[in-house]
Amino acid sequence: MIDPKLCFSATNEIIKIAKGIALAFVATEEYTTEASLHKHISECLAEIEINCSSDVRAGYTQHIATRFPVWVSDEAYKRIRLREMKSTISKMRTVAQSHVQNIS
Are 61 and 13 in contact (CB under 8 A)? Predict the structure, then answer.
């Protein structure tokens, strides 16, 4: 969980990085294990840390990712799992609706 005492700018940057990592994750038909998900997140964080840029914005992103990797990782993990849950619920809703239509 992100420390509520952290400044607004850093908190927003952590969330922005986590969203980017979550969007970069491509789910497969198989269940994604916790280990493979953390591996994906670690690889994304490593890529952010390696990329050096003279751009101030990229530098700030790199600084935050390097300084708060656990918070970024936790936030990305939550976002990916939430997206998976939404997808599963949507599929279940579709199946349930088709069953209800068949009964009617």
Answer: yes
